[in-house]
Amino acid sequence: MNLIENISKNIYPLETIYVEQAKQRLDRLIKPTGSLGKMEQICIQLAGIYGRKYFDTSKKVIIAFGADHGVYEEGVAPDPQNITILQFKNFPKKINGVGTISKFSGSDVVAVDVGINCDEKLEGVIDRKIRKGTSNMAKGPAMTREEAEKCIGIGIEMAEKYIQDDYTLIGIGEMGIANTTPSTAIISVLANCDPTEITGIGAGLKKELIQHKASVIRKSIELNKPNPKDSIDILSKVGGFEIGSMAGVILGCAANRIPVVLDGFISYAAALLAYNINPITKDYMIASHSSAEPGTNKALDMMGLEPFLSMDMRLGEGSGAALSFNIIEASNYVYKNMATFDEIDMGR
Fold first, then answer.
1. What is the pLDDT of residues 279-328, one digit of tens each?
2. d(Cα 44, Cα 48) in Å, to the nearest integer?
3. In the chain, which residues have pLDDT < 70?
4. For 250, left (φ over 0), alpha (ψ -120 to 50), or beta?
5. What are phi and psi of 75, to 5 degrees?
6. β partners of residue 169
7. Given strand 60-67, what is the order of strands in its sheet?
8. What is the per-residue burial (b if ≥16 Cβ within 10 Å, else e) of 5-32?
């Protein structure tokens, strides 16, 4: 049994006894029943994930993966590919979007190179490079099946490493010029829809080039024929190393009963791959915000996830996940510290 199969077999549903205990406490807080909306749902979910009535969400980390994509050569992205390496260097320095938000929210940021198109070692970045970018999926498979399994395995290992270091809240992030293209391809395959329905501008592609981008994605799917029932096959045919690694983090978190906070569109593709491997992983996911990419709703609807922020963000990196950490901690703080009707005399 390989690592992915073993992890999948160790993912179990939420602990319902603690779900009920959390509901009971929330219903006894001095407020109208259900009046804190999604803040209450977060606490109920966390109680079921951790398997306890009270829990600590203070030690948190964004695990971000960087990789490049061979399909870039098809003209599907507006920025030069070396932006991947230039920006990824800023992750450990915490001076980019996710880093700055993480400093505010008190979160750590871990940067992992799984496939950036460079030979140099990046300071402060964990080197788990599989190779220097995927192959062009418009001309053949993006990677081998063995590479697909490897990048998922790296994600599992990274999740377990930080869980062993006592992190109790993990968010995922990424960096990779052109990575909305493989993400859209993955969602198209799993949703069985035409890429035209869900192809967006990514990091700023001109609107007149969106149809070209969609046609590249369609061509790639038709050429490689990924099996929609096999996440490893989909990843190998039309995916990316950072996408597979994020899927691995989700699997690793679910198997270890730790919540994983999704970021934006790229992470939704990763989440769908994990969900396709084991649907129970959905119970461990928290959708942070609704990305501006058009495939967002289709991906989240397939998993039955509803984000609690709508900020018109499309930066990626893990920025939405880092921002949502404050909401999650505020929810937990209220859950633990608001008075109950049993503690004060309010006639209820």
1. 999 999 999 999 888 899 999 999 999 999 999 888 999 999 999 999 99
2. 6
3. 1, 346-348
4. alpha
5. 75, 40
6. 60
7. 126-127, 108-115, 60-67, 169-175, 260-262, 285-287
8. eebbeebeebbeebbebbbebbebbebe
CA 81 – CA 176 distance, rounded (Å): 8
Please report, as a single letter, which amino acid is at residue 191.
A
Q: Which residue has the tokens 């198209």?
A: 188
Domain-wise residue ranges, the chain? 60-327
- Catalytic hit among 40, 74, 317, 329: 317
Judging by DSSP bridges, how do beta strands 126-127 and 108-115 pair with one another?
parallel
At residue 64, the 3 state secondary structure works out as strand
The single-letter code of the amino acid at 246 is: M
Distance CA 115, CA 219 (A): 24
Tell me the per-residue pLDDT of 227-280, one tens digit each, with 9 for 90 and over.
Answer: 999 999 999 999 999 999 999 999 999 999 999 999 999 999 999 999 999 999
Instruction: Look up the CATH number of domain 60-327.
Output: 3.40.50.10210
Phi then psi dihedrals of residue 286, to 5 deg: -120, 120
Q: Which helix (H) or strand (E) holds 151?
A: helix 145-164
In order, the DSSP letters of 169-190 are EEEEEEE-TTTHHHHHHHHHHH
Query: Any idea what DSSP says for residue 76?
Result: -
Q: State how beta strands 285-287 and 126-127 pair.
A: unpaired
Q: Buried b vs exposed e over 115-141: b needs ≥16 C-beta within 10 Å?
A: bbbbeeebeebbebbbeebbbbbbeeb
The rounded distance, in Å, linking the Cα atoms of 292 and 313 is: 6
Q: What are phi and psi of 135, to 5 degrees?
A: -80, 165
What's the one-letter identity of residue 159?
A
Please list, in sequence order, all residues whose beta carbon lies within 8 angstroms of the beta carbon of residue 310, skipping any fewer than 6 positions away. 289, 290
Specify the pTM.
Answer: 0.97
Active site residue 20: no
**How is residue 41 annotated by DSSP?**
H
pLDDT at site 24: 98
Q: Residue 262 in 3-state DSSP?
A: strand
114/95 Cα distance (integer angstroms)? 21
